[in-house]
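subagent[fold] <- orchestrator: predict structure for attached chain, return tokens only, no commentary.
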Amino acid sequence: MTLDHRQKHLQSLRAGLSLLIAPIEFLVDLPNDLGRWVSESLSSRQTLLEENTRLHSQNLLMQARSLKNADLEAENQRLRELLGSSLKVTDRVLIAELIKVDLDPFKHLIRINKTSKNGVYVDQPLLDADGVMGQVIETVPAHSTVRLITDPGHSIPVQVSRNGLRTIATGIGKINQISLPYLPNNTDIKQGDLLVTSGLGGVYPPGYPVAYVTEVKYIAGDEFAQIKAEPTAHLNRSREVLLVWSGEHIKMLQQSTQPTKVPDDENR
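subagent[fold] -> orchestrator:
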């Protein structure tokens, strides 16, 4: 051993033996190495799956927040338009929110979140940023019900803005259309004319946009023309709406909101 240590006679022999032993060591260590590799692979896969799940959840959350932000932005835009519209209205107004739509195809009714506690009254006009929507037909403690101008049971006095011609517009059960059934064949009305409230009947104050004339048909032999118009208000899209007070109703609202005075006798 001493001679081998000094003169390295057995070094080549050891090298040869190492070459022979190396495959055996590899085979001996193979199960452990393979098990460790499989364990690390499974661990890495599980980590990746967990990371993927977490990122997917975060992505869904961010998308939901993005959609909510988009909805808030759209709502803010609608409110700005509504407030801009209310500045043009000389009567007193109150912003209300639509909470329910009647699904009956033969009735065009909606519910709003303002009631008599807010001064809402039957026959009160309802508008959006673009025109007349309808009128209140019922108010209960939880909500108020509004009949839209397209409801078959609704009629509204209007006049042609261009020439002052007055008539009645009625709902026909279509959300984007009303009819003017009482104008004779020789009437001065044409497509594109703006219809506004005439103020007759005492329900709607005068001058509010109602609809644009979209179709005028004169049929030989018929006494009346067939005239259709499209409402200016977005009846199937508006979420925020305006309740309008005018004339004596403003005085009634002011009186109802004034504090009750206590008689001097009761004070004493």
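orchestrator: received. Logging for downstream: The mean pLDDT is 79. The radius of gyration is 40 Å.
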